[in-house]
């Protein structure tokens, strides 16, 4: 099947097998290896990307389902040579650890901060609860996200924030 997907602002057209997962499309077809591939069952969350502004686990989305849609990956966080505050926070607070979960964590953190410029520790932990980090007790990751919030990482820094709505059910979690 021929699909056209806008990835990090760039339109990409490719012929793909109907069964190709979005994670493999991004990594193998487009060379965007920042999106990691972990479990293929949506348990680990390392493959989180945005599909039309909403975080999804790309191991459970077929590439053909992204046809005509926008995808944002961790490579799309930086603004030119300037790192996003979320990326800066992960560096400043040692949230990187081994780095395997980092892209998914960063994408989730960016989404959270786009919707809540000053989340509590509880809000942060809830937001990242769909992702596994095997290196830490999440302390440095939570600190990294708080650092980003405290250093201009709120919604005003993200182009995508204005056009996205919270995922279904998120309002109840935040209330």
From TrEMBL:
Renumbered residue ranges of the record's region Disordered: 152-175
UniProt superkingdom: Bacteria
Coiled-coil region(s): none
This protein's record includes keyword Transmembrane: no
Positions of the 2Fe-2S ferredoxin-type domain: 1-77
TM region(s), chain numbering: none
Gene3D superfamilies: 3.10.20.30, [2Fe-2S]-binding domain (1.10.150.120)
Xref: PROSITE patterns: 2FE2S_FER_2 (PS51085)
Keywords, sorted A to Z: 2Fe-2S, Iron, Iron-sulfur, Metal-binding, Oxidoreductase
InterPro entries on file: 2Fe-2S-bd (IPR002888), 2Fe-2S-bd_dom_sf (IPR036884), 2Fe-2S_ferredoxin-like_sf (IPR036010), 2Fe-2S_ferredoxin-type (IPR001041), Beta-grasp_dom_sf (IPR012675), Diverse_Oxidoreductases (IPR051452)
Keyword Manganese belongs to the record: no
One Pfam family linked to the record: Fer2_2
Protein name: (2Fe-2S)-binding protein
Source species of the chain: Streptomyces mirabilis
Taxon lineage: Bacteria, Bacillati, Actinomycetota, Actinomycetes, Kitasatosporales
């Amino acid at each position: 099947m021929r699909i056209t997907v806008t990835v990090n602002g760039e339109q990409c057209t490719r012929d793909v097998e109907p069964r190709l997962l979005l994670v493999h499309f991004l990594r193998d077809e487009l060379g965007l290896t920042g999106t990691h591939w972990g479990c293929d069952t949506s348990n680990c969350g390392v493959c989180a990307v945005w599909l039309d502004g909403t975080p999804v686990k790309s191991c459970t989305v077929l590439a053909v389902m992204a046809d005509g849609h926008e995808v944002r990956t961790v490579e799309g966080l930086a603004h030119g040579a300037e790192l996003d505050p979320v990326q800066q926070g992960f560096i400043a607070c040692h949230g990187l650890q081994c780095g395997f979960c980092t892209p998914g964590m960063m994408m989730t953190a960016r989404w959270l901060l786009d919707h809540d410029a000053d989340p509590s520790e509880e809000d942060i932990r809830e937001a990242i609860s769909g992702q596994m980090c095997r290196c830490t007790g999440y302390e440095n990751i939570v600190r990294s996200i708080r650092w980003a919030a405290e250093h201009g990482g709120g919604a005003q820094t993200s182009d995508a924030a204005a056009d996205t709505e919270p995922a279904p059910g998120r309002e109840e979690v935040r209330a």
